């Protein structure tokens, strides 16, 4: 096992971002539950510890705590936000609850420029704050390294013991020099090297998959999206012929998609592929269902039963591969902590029957979308698969608001094909939207076409920019492009007489409408 940075997850929404930044800095890391014991970490070649933020207050009784032996282990520790406050509590500092919590941007002023944590940071830079408690008196051996107007101890450190804390979030993009600060901790404080690459991830994943699977057979859920493609290819690298991929056409795919999935995976990538036409089965179960959560749960259940049936035909299948990504995990439930609010049941995480007969292999569970694309390139996947935009597991079901019928599927499919065609062919979009699609709303409105009155469907167009799907902004598409999309949809898609453009960011909205 390489020297590893362990990130204790106290349930902050962005804990995994710390892992991602650490990987970007070329250092191997793993996210572990906050209550992991020092003795179990000690066996795993730990090089440094990072304590994540979290939604709780350390001042409340029963707040999540860490094994104190971690702080006295002699390893360098960086506490972030809640993590810093915990470190403060354990080292004799004094904390108070603020009258008004501090959220959002603040200017960080470096007070101890000679501290290795802030080496080469600008004397003043923007940081992102999100805290309700504050350290007002430091523990013995600690110095205040930086401050903001509202927070005297925005960064603290004990040089002798290599314990450091920051009240702000260095992992988020709104902290201008956050990556630099994290790099200072990893390289200068912990003495780690920038030598971890995606290739190392592949080697490790292959080893782990082989060890986990042994000589058993594995089945993989191929959806056509980049995640399952990369997951399947990675697993095929590890265990070759022991893997069978099952592609379920649930009838909720985009135009032409089912055919292109089969062509790419069977004919180009030569994976063992079984294609199942389950359209009628899914549409039958979904008939009359309007509630988004029920749709997701029905689709999730049906998926698993189809897999179980297919797997039953192949002797000795014990495992199911899924291309679950970190944002899917975090938004369905906080992974290793007890905190967190459920937003949607992602079909590849939630909604699974209690008694599933498969064990799961989720080799992408720690990764963000753009990391998965890199991994796909490292594995040699063709660019058109690697660049494919994200598509939700429940497919067009969550882009048809209300009842799902063949007719309504045709409408959303045709509109979606136009949105994709126009945006794919638009030159020089900066940045190119991350995801773009059409949504069929249940709204009908009056229009006039030729000389006649129409009373027809409203289609919404959504195009977003994003880094990882966890937050998103609506894409500022040129008006001429929007005009082409709107004109073509109204002219070419039967039953649509009005097009709206969704100008909501995430949060407060989500990317998909359901
Ligand atoms: P939301 O709508 O939750 O979407 O803001 C965030 C990203 O996740 C995709 N998405 C899904 N992906 N299974 C998936 O694999 C799902 O059930 C699912 N639902 C949403 C969505 O397209 C966006 O990229």
Structure description:
With 514 residues, the chain is α/β, with parallel strands linked by helices. It has 3 domains: 4-189, Rossmann fold, CATH 3.40.50; 198-386, Rossmann fold, CATH 3.40.50; 400-501, GMP Synthetase, Chain A, domain 3 (2-Layer Sandwich). 32% of the residues lie in helices and 26% in strands. It has 14 helices and 18 strands. It has helices spanning 15-24, 38-42, 82-90, 178-189, 198-213, 226-239, 257-268, 279-286, 292-312, 326-332, 369-378, 383-386, 406-425, 479-492, and strands spanning 4-9, 29-33, 46-51, 77-80, 94-110, 124-137, 143-148, 151-158, 163-166, 217-222, 243-249, 273-277, 317-321, 359-361, 435-449, 452-466, 472-474, 496-501. The strands form 3 sheets. The chain has a 9-stranded mixed sheet with strand order 2-1-3-4-9-8-7-5-6, sandwiched between helices. Strands 12-11-10-13-14 form a 5-stranded parallel sheet, sandwiched between helices. Helix 10 (326-332) links the parallel strand 13 (317-321) and strand 14 (359-361). The longest helix has 21 residues, at 292-312. It is globular. Mean pLDDT is 91; it is low at 333-340 and 349-355. Bound molecules: xanthosine-5'-monophosphate. Residues 328, 331, 344, 346-348, 390, 392-394, 435, 469, 506, 510-512 line the site of xanthosine-5'-monophosphate.
